Amino acid sequence: MTAKITEETKHYPADLFELASQADIVSDIVHRPEQSFWQDAWRGLRKNKAAIVGLCIIIFVILLAVFGPFMNNHGYDEQNITRTNLPPKVPVLEHLPFLGLNGVDGRGVDQYEKKGITEYFWFGTDELGRDLWTRIWQGTRISLYIAFLAATIDLIIGVAYGAISAFYGGRTDNVMQRVIEVLVGITGLIVNILLILILKPGIISITLAMVIVGWISMARIVRAQILKLKSYEYVLASRTLGASNQRLIWKHLIPNTLGPIIVATTFTIPGAIFTEALLSFIGLGLQPPTASLGTIVNDSYKLLRIYPHGMIVSSIIISLIMISFNLLGDGLRDAFDPKVRK
Amino acid sequence: MKTILEVKNLSVSFNTYSGEVQAVRNVSFDLYEGETLAIVGESGSGKSVTSKSLLRLNPRETTMIKNGQIFYHHKNILDYSEQQMRGLRGAEISMIFQDPMTALNPTMTIGSQIAESIKKHTSLRGMQIIERVIELLQLVGIKEADKRYKQYPHQFSGGMRQRIVIAMALACEPRIIIADEPTTALDVSIQAQILELLKNIQKKMNLSIIFITHDLGVVAKMADRVAVMYAGKIVEIGLVDEIFYHCQHPYTQGLLAAMPNPDIDSESLYAIPGTPPNLLQPPVGDAFAARNKQALKIDFLEEPPMFKISDTHYAATWLLHKQAPPLLPVHQQLAQEKQKEREEKPLFDTNNPFLSLKEVKQYFKLGKNTINKAIDGITFDIYKGEIFGLVGESGCGKSTTGRSIIGLNTITDGTIQIDGQSIYDAQTKQEKLAFHRKVQMIFQDPYSSLNPRMKIADIIGEGLAIHGVPKSEWKTNIYELLDIVGLTKEYANRYPHELSGGQRQRIGIARALAVEPELIIADEPISALDVSIQAQIVNLLKKLQKERGLTYLFIAHDLSMVKYISNRIGVMHRGKIVELAESQELYDHPIHPYTKSLLSAIPLPDPKLERERQRIIFDEVKYNANDRANEKFIEVRPGHFVMLTEDELMQYHQTSAKGILL
């Protein structure tokens, strides 16, 4: 205890012992510009580098998917037996041999020279001599279209179903959950296959097949969240203010479920691309000559050991799309959550 | 006295996302054998971190012990290896945690949980362990211990579980027990039992207890010595009488003044302004200076050293320096003011109650055949402009009553009338909105009662939006409301998580006021707040009541605060109101045995009184043995109603006739 007593006898200037005026007391008020929720969210997203990279890649891929097929004058279904299985060859980059973009195949033969072709095929060609650049971007376009369509429908049905089920509770919830359980009970792939057998393969039938079971996980996530949230005191407070059910759901419950919803959606999009690829792979997807990322993988894996370029390029694009959606989803979730945002 | 533990210049920091939080700053204290040292402080003052450091229980990845030594039996335990620490934990120093609901593993029998540390630290084996477990359970007052040790935690009530936690802590006969808010999660009467148990065990085993709490009443009951912590520092330490009757630090004085004393009738509570500092950047000088109305200039420049007042009493404030001007301590100033401020008793229009409940019943169906009778026939009126307190232990139906009145639950039976109209009369949208304009609610938990994704402006503005106030008027309305609850308009643009508990509760009040209600149901509005903040909120509620002529239903379990704020109090027990009277009357002449036991269980911030006081125990079995079916709500004195059976009434009349006031 003795160590604690120190400067007791030290002398200080007398004016230090006057009462401090109120001005000495500094307040902790921080001024901040007035911004709406969306502006705040955008500000938060901009600070997240990974999310911005993801967003840029997605925009870049979408742009290419829209304009890529028009960048040369080959059609996606234009076959030419004289130029089958050409490796990629890109002007300028062809002079950097380690990139492998000089038209030389795995055995060291320059296929362009051998077949006497002077054109450049940036991604090479497939076994029927179709230009892969055109096909891949055409395929990306269709894959993204299916994915967005499926994700949007999943989102709408899933959120609405989950929210209604949890919010009204009781018998409504009971019936709605039993319906879900029946749907879950049947394996998704079997539903897909059966549906496609009836509807004939095509973009709409594939989307429908994916949606029919896809929304269930979203509905369950939303239901679990809302069940938890609806007994929170801020929801009760809003009810005591006389808020309508609509207001409760849209202003309080859904915004606080956004985190899991966004995460689930960002998993749905790559998932849908993947399912479409899988269906095409087993021959139930899009029929030739229509291209999708899945059909391209399906076509080119057979030649994987000799002409790997088709497989490599399409897999890279699938991976890029998946990674960037995940990055963006992560960033969006944080951006919509004021607690994480700085 | 022998020193058993010695803490020297301990500083602990946490690495967080936003920087280094200096949770404990240069703390020193000794612990003597057989004593209880209470560490008092608000949330974030570093009291829990200090105590956890003694066992090195803070998360290892983020914690940095910056400085200091902790000597246990003259060995610095900060130098111990993790293995040596394990030998110490449980065997020499053990801990009792706050929440008995989460401190026990639900998948293990309580017997095997207690046996765990016995197996680890002693040579007892087999039957010996079981015998020891039963002995421990008997020690902490669990009946039929030889049968119950095989049961699982869910088969015990909250108070019983805390006893089991204590038994676990005692299993290896430790020398020191660290009790981290062991009674905060419990009801007052259970709290009193646990405190008495701890005291008895301490005497039997000559234990040293470090008792961490924010409740000064509990301190007065338990402690031999008290250390007051603020912003990671000990600002004052001394014997319990020295702290309660001769405190020197303005923070301690403020804390004591902020407690309502049921024996003194006063108009406003003393409240420490502001909120505790952020320990990411601890303030220069005296950390309390910014909240101290009598701060000296030197308080903002230099940190005060520990001044010695007596051999046992030290305080860190410049007021003790020989050059300091003589100032009258806050609590004494207050005592002078209090004498002046007594007011006339307000008069209410008792013929036309604003809120009237008649035989209200609220049953919840739990399963096919089980019904929870949350409210079982209660009748009471609240007059316009009155503050009506509703007290009771958790699960007695007091919160349900509030929620039924505002229409969050539909009642099973009975009538609720507001302003002469049944609350179920409102059918159209307009009528329902009109009802919600009349009645508003303030919620208990300031953390879950504000939507984390909405800005403060939107939260307050919600009522305006629902009730169709034109958008152009929102801004001025919101700024005005913020001003009323004592916040600046800069807060409008913030999110709830950026605010402290007290500030959030102010927002909750502003939200309720936005629709200009006449009746406010306050459901435990202060129980989640720190002592110094509680007084701020209570004063605000009282001020608003006066200025706007509001009527309150004030629901709480803290009888002393309810007594302070309310005009009349209803005591609830098992879904029934068992006693109802004016607050002073109820406090002076409680009649129902439950009320008596409740009143005697409140720990008072007065150690001398606490030592003399005898607790009255409510004997539930004996109470239920009387013919409860025939009980009636009888007016025994003017305005004083009690739920009594005829026998009990006779008894009461006999004793009061003899001139014995109960």
Salient structural properties:
heterodimer; A: 342 residues; mainly alpha; MetI-like fold; B: 662 residues; alpha/beta; Rossmann fold; 8-stranded mixed sheet; 23 helices
Number of strands of chain A: 0
CATH topology-level fold name of one domain in chain B = Rossmann fold
Share of β-strand residues of chain A: under 5%
Task: Report, as a whole number of angstroms, the end-to-end distance of chain A.
Answer: 44 Å
Keywords (chain B): ATP-binding, Nucleotide-binding, Transport
InterPro entries (chain B): AAA+_ATPase (IPR003593), ABC_transp_ATP-bind (IPR050319), ABC_transporter-like_ATP-bd (IPR003439), ABC_transporter-like_CS (IPR017871), Oligopep_ABC_C (IPR013563), P-loop_NTPase (IPR027417)
Protein name (chain B): ABC transporter ATP-binding protein
GO molecular function (chain B): ATP binding; ATP hydrolysis activity
Please sum up the structure shown.
Chain A is mostly helical. Helices cover 61% and strands 0% of the residues of chain A.
Can you lay out the helices and strands and say which pair or pack?
The complex is a heterodimer of chains A (342) and B (662).
Chain A lengths: L36 H11 L1 H19 L43 H5 L16 H37 L1 H16 L2 H12 L3 H27 L3 H8 L4 H37 L11 H9 L7 H27 L7
Chain B lengths: L2 E14 L2 E14 L3 E5 L6 H8 L8 E10 L2 E2 L5 H7 L4 E4 L13 H12 L5 H13 L5 H4 L9 H13 L5 E5 L7 H18 L2 E6 L2 H7 L2 E6 L2 E7 H6 L4 H9 L48 E2 L5 E2 L14 H11 L14 E11 L5 E12 L4 E5 L6 H8 L7 E6 L2 E2 L6 H10 E4 L13 H11 L4 H14 L16 H13 L5 E5 L7 H18 L2 E6 L2 H7 L2 E6 L2 E7 H6 L4 H9 L5 H6 L7 H6 L6 E6 L2 E5 L1 H12 L5
Parallel strand pairs in B: 3-8, 3-9, 6-7, 7-8, 15-20, 15-21, 18-19, 19-20
Antiparallel strand pairs in B: 1-2, 1-4, 4-5, 9-10, 10-12, 11-12, 13-14, 13-16, 16-17, 21-22, 22-24, 23-24
